[in-house]
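Reviewer 2 asked us to include a model.

Predict the structure of this chain.
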Amino acid sequence: MLPRIAIIGRPNVGKSTLFNRLAGRKLAIVNDTPGVTRDRKEVQARLGGRDVLLLDTAGLEEAPPDTVAGRMRASSEVAVRQADLVLFVIDAKAGVTPSDRAFAAWLRRQPAPVLLVANKTEGRGGGMAAMEAYELGLGDPVAISAEHGEGIADLHTTTAEMLPEEEDPEVRDRDRPLRLAIVGRPNAGKSTLLNALLGEERMITGPEPGLTRDAVAVQWEDAEGKVRLVDTAGMRKKARISEDLEQMSVASTIAALKEAEIAVLVLDALLGMDEQDLRIARLAEREGRAVVIAYNKWDAVEDRAAARQALEDTLQTSLAQLKGITVVAISAMTGKGVDRLMPAVRQVMERWNRRIPTGELNRWFEGAVAKHSPPLANGRRIKLRYATMPKARPPTIAIFGPRAEDLPEDYRRYLVNSFRETFDMPGVPIRLHCRGGKNPFVEE
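Predicted model (structure tokens):
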């Protein structure tokens, strides 16, 4: 496993700005509103020539444990206990506060080494402001400006010196993780599901809708191997997206979906599947991602036969492009049924990643064309000659023949459904390209 570096500090001291700076790209939402980051966000980065896992955490605040702020602090404390190195960030402009002193005293009792980072030291007097940090008893502070990039080179060097010795990269990179995005409407139970899969309270949950504001990545392993889980902010209807923060959350969800391989769409079984859920599923399909439905809160459903039938009817009439989509009934809160989710995901992943040999593909193609000949286009016959599969992830078929590009939509759907049925690919998006000229996938 890569060494874990947790970025810790009070709200609004610049933790997410520093996270983005060290990650080399904008991953965490940055806003002047205190407490924007509510969950631990994780990304692989390179610091001082070392590959690391970088954790952006919620702000440390003194608050009762049953409040959102209290749950945020508990999440940050877990990150510290799991870290190989802690970057404790303070706002040098604001000076050392009583909260900084209290958290520094707590950090001195933790097993992980702590590197003190004095942020916002740009301009005149910045270096002098950082000197005040010595009183925290955490050693020499590294003076930086995360926003302007000042002092970042020194931070890289010092961080690399404080990390444990590097492990063998061949052992570390033995296999590549499955990239899985958990998507759905606000309050459907996405974060509760992620916590159930991990077996820990990684994500902050509660009755308040919209607690997760950012896409949060977590490295994990199931029985089959490595998984990169991404819990996303809930996507509301466009008319309800008004605040800047929420607009950024939706953009973060879409970006997470683009980077994923499989999407788990979490539905509230008490509410069923509505237009917003369909919109999310169609977005995943457009991006070429396979979808598995986690039908959550199943333990609270009274008429299960009716709920299942209602979902089936909606899927058949409104989501034909993902025909045969896998549905797993679960209760993320109690954990019931959650153990069946990842095996279903792995099965769908195998379909999504599957390549059909050219000979086998053309035997299917010839049979499908013989069973139903292509219709005439503008009174002229369409002659289909052969098919290739230029890529998987998602399965993509290219069909060649004179005027193949004129194939009507219903015949294209027939070919896709026939391919899906013949090669057992339910719930997987399938791409069909028709080419009337020469094969564009053959290199010159």
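The domain at 358-435 is CATH 3.30.300.20 (GMP Synthetase; Chain A, domain 3). The chain has three domains: 4-171, 175-352, 358-435. We have added this to the supplementary material.
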